[in-house]
């Protein structure tokens, strides 16, 4: 019998949070509500700060969970064509029930990359912040395999966040990534046009990677 990929354990963890807490920020394992909106603003800035953006851009919320980022887009009155993707059948079924006019995909993009079309933008909010029981090597391997596949699914740019190394101490269940390792991977495998956001007061940072220069 083929062994299941270790990263599937992360999805199971989030489903357990949903079962325990319901459809709210705790249900996708964010500890503080005020920090969640801050992350959403940073993710949305990927689009707002792109001087090359199309009139009504399409966006894939990769690891969409319960679709809360779409709620935030609506609250900001932004004109974006939103789609969501998650590896969890439970999350996708819930999103389809809540947002019947949107498209949602339940796909493991590492094994089925051709099941997903190309969007203008792709965001991955919280996909790489927790490694839980995975070893650092397992999480690093998953992370570096995922980045180029995800980047191929956007025509303008993508954003993702990881835990910062500039902290007083590191939690064993979180994924802290040094700048130099990440910038080497981005510049060599993705694009030379990227921005690192370490300015929003959390113990993490967000990276925007664009297909072409933004000036």
Topology record:
Blueprint: H1 8-21, H2 33-48, E1 58-62, H3 68-75, E2 81-86, H4 89-98, E3 103-106, E4 119-124, H5 136-151, E5 154-163, H6 179-190, E6 193-197, E7 204-210
Parallel strand pairs: 1-2, 1-4, 2-3, 4-5
Antiparallel strand pairs: 5-7, 6-7
Helix pairs in contact: 5-6
Shape: globular
Spatially, the strands of the biggest sheet line up as 3-2-1-4-5-7-6
What's the order of the H and E elements? Answer: HHEHEHEEHEHEE
What can be said about the biggest beta sheet? 7 strands, mixed
State the domain count.
1
Average pLDDT level: 95
Number of helices: 6
Residues in helices, as a percent range: 25-40%
Number of DSSP E strands: 7
CATH architecture: 3-Layer(aba) Sandwich
CA gyration radius, whole angstroms = 16 Å
Overview of the molecule:
The chain is globular and about 45 Å long. The protein is built from six helices and seven strands, in the order ααβαβαββαβαββ. The longest helix is centred in the N-terminal third of the chain and has 16 residues, at 33-48. The protein has a single domain, classed as Rossmann fold (3-Layer(aba) Sandwich). A seven-stranded mixed β-sheet has the order 3-2-1-4-5-7-6, with helices on both faces. Helix 5 runs parallel beside helix 6. It has 215 residues and is an alpha/beta fold. The protein has helices at residues 8-21, 33-48, 68-75, 89-98, 136-151, 179-190; strands at 58-62, 81-86, 103-106, 119-124, 154-163, 193-197, 204-210. A hairpin with a 6-residue loop joins strand 6 (193-197) and strand 7 (204-210).
């Amino acid at each position: 019998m083929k062994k299941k990929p270790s990263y599937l354990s992360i999805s199971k963890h989030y489903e357990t949070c949903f079962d325990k807490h319901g459809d709210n920020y705790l249900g996708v394992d964010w500890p503080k509500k005020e920090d969640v909106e801050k992350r959403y603003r940073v993710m949305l800035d990927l689009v707002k700060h792109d001087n090359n953006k199309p009139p009504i851009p399409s966006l894939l919320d990769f690891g969409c969970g319960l679709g809360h980022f779409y709620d935030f887009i609506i609250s900001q009155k932004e004109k974006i064509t939103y789609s969501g993707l998650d590896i969890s059948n439970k999350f996708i079924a819930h999103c389809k029930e809540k947002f019947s006019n949107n498209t949602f995909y339940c796909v493991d993009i590492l094994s089925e990359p051709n099941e997903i079309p190309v969007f203008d933008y792709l965001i991955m909010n919280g996909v790489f912040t927790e490694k839980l029981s995975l070893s650092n090597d397992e999480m690093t391997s998953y992370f570096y395999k995922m980045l180029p596949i995800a980047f191929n699914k956007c025509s303008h740019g993508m954003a993702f966040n990881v835990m910062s190394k500039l902290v007083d101490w590191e939690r064993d269940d979180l994924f802290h990534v040094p700048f130099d390792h990440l910038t080497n991977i981005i510049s060599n495998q993705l694009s030379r046009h990227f921005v690192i956001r370490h300015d929003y007061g959390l113990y993490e940072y967000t990276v925007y990677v664009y297909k072409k220069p933004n000036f």
